[in-house]
Fold this sequence. Notes:
Blueprint: H1 5-14, E1 31-35, H2 42-58, E2 62-66, H3 73-79, E3 88-93, H4 94-103, E4 115-125, E5 127-130, H5 139-148, E6 154-157, H6 163-175, E7 180-183, H7 187-196, E8 201-202, H8 206-214, E9 219-223, E10 249-257, H9 262-276, H10 279-286, E11 290-291, E12 297-298, E13 301-302, E14 311-314, E15 325-328, H11 329-332, H12 340-351, E16 359-361, H13 363-369, E17 372-377, H14 387-398, E18 405-408, H15 412-423, E19 428-432, H16 438-446, E20 450-453, H17 458-472, E21 475-476, H18 482-498, E22 504-508, H19 513-525, E23 530-536, H20 541-548, H21 571-580, E24 583-587, H22 589-603, H23 609-624, E25 633-638, H24 645-654
Parallel strand pairs: 1-2, 1-3, 6-7, 6-8, 17-25, 18-19, 18-21, 19-20, 22-23, 22-25, 23-24
Antiparallel strand pairs: 3-10, 4-10, 4-13, 5-8, 5-9, 11-12, 14-15, 16-17
Amino acid sequence: MRCSRRRFLAAALLAAGAPAWAQERYPARPVRFVVPYPPGGASDVTARILADKLTEAWGQQVIVDNRPGANGIVALEVFVKQPPDGHTLLIANLGPNAINPAVYPKLPYDPIRDFAPVTLLTEVPQVLVAYPGLEAKTLPELLALAKAKPGGIVYGTGGNGSANHLAIELMASIAGISMTSVAYRGDAQAMTDTMSGQIALTMPTVVAAMPHVKSGKLRPLAVSTRRRVESLPEVPTMDESGVPGFESASWGGVMAPAGTQRTIVDTVHSQLARILQLPDVRQKLGGLGGHDHRHRAQRVRIVPAGGNPQVGCSREKSEHPDRMTQRPIAAEATQSLPSLSQLQAARAVVLAAMPPTPQYAWPLLARRLGAEVWLKHENHTPVGAFKLRGGLAYLSRIAGDRQGLIAATRGNHGQSIAYAAARHRLPVMIVVPHGNSREKNAAMRALGAQLVEHGEDFQASLEFAQRLAGERGLRMVPSFDPMLVCGVASCWLELFEAVPDLDLVFVPIGLGSGACAAAAARTALGRRMRLIGVVSDAAPTYALSLQAGHPVPAPVTTELADGLACRVPNADALRILQRELDGVVQVSDAEIAQAMKILYVDTHNVAEGAGAASLAAALRMRREQPGAFDGRRIGLTLTGGNVDHERFARVLLETAID
């Protein structure tokens, strides 16, 4: 229950037992910055610069308290137990605050509930550094050495699941190599052992590595950004050095314990806003190298702390499409797109369960469309559809609860949840409409799900599942959720990193998670391709809703595209798609059938109806706008291949194509 300022002040005057910090002037005593890493790392350097300036401003000592261990868990466990009086602040970081919740089933803190955000401070690239005596002097030589000696190269990390651990594993995954990791209590210790030759490699931030690179104690092999950084202009990027599409960066911010008075948060925020604009501070932080969201080589992006401290950033369409506009999280969290660090954390969870799916430039599709055509094969996941990614990400957040799950589906969402639940040994009930695909039902049962048939369409099944969840104390797994979007976005990150200069991308819209994930990946990577939504004209709710500007329920009559069979749009997805889509194309069942057959004939892949929708839309646009694709590079996704064999056989036998 919220309390107005007037009521709060009245309560403070009347309550004899009110805590002292509710009435004292801030700061009333020394302030402590908790840092989750040892001295010498980027977080520590940033904290000490800010602490000096805050001490001058407040006349109270600001102390840096290094609490390394367990990838920041030690520090954050201590931090969340502190009174919310503003005298203990946290240097928040990508690893403890964003990655840990995705990779650890049980944490002694909640990444949302236990923290009051104050401001984002910096975004800093990483650099892969090696022991100078290592026989491999460049990244290509290192990759060749690792392939010749699988597991023989040892690298250090700041902890299991830390930002540099995941970054190096991502590099290894892309390059197809295997190395051995050693977890330390922070980047500084990993660098120390790299300098002495105890281990071969580590990947700290540029901030932390720079003094040792300048002294010659560490050899830089590659930076983690898409462009070279100004402070290390001779060091190539991962992409230049044989790891295509690689990108990683760390961020730092300040948080207070949850429950801290807004006036205290505002006080800290305003001081940090002022400090970050001081020339000497900008020189100290910015002179150590970095990049902005468009990947141009320049200094560290110092994020101005002006305005509301509790805001997130999202790219909105305007006459300045490269600018980031502030959007209040509390008011519009469901409309905002996740950040690159959130998407990378979800991708790490996905990659732990499955390898990246391929994307190919198919020459026969190119001939049909008159353009270079890249097809992303999500029919190659372990359950044959893109939604597995969302299920893996969502279940990683709740796996420690041991609460039974329930979901409603026509197939792919249910298979993804059943697969992810089986990995975590969680019981799951799936509600499907009567007459649902027998083969999809069999697949969900084979994955361990209890199947319940109810209703004539997905909406009826959803409403019944929600009722069962309340009656039986089950956790309802939504069909649209930010974590589902983050997981699904890993598909689009793979495509957009592999083919960064796409001109148009066609994205099918069912309930909206796939299309919103494509928008999130585009924004996070700073890409400029146009996103074209695809809906079935026999399930037109999103087409009608996007045109009207509000949800418009519509009947579903499609017999072929189960994945597009949505009767009522999700309001959160609708708001995102209204802002992010560059156009919408409606396709008929007949056009979808043609696209299914073309995919089989031209690429030898089986596509379900929704999986062929993006090609159907591209073919329709090609017919209606001759020459629209000339010289263009187009992205399509085969979102799934889960079609009953009898239905697919009829499509092949009864559908005519050119």
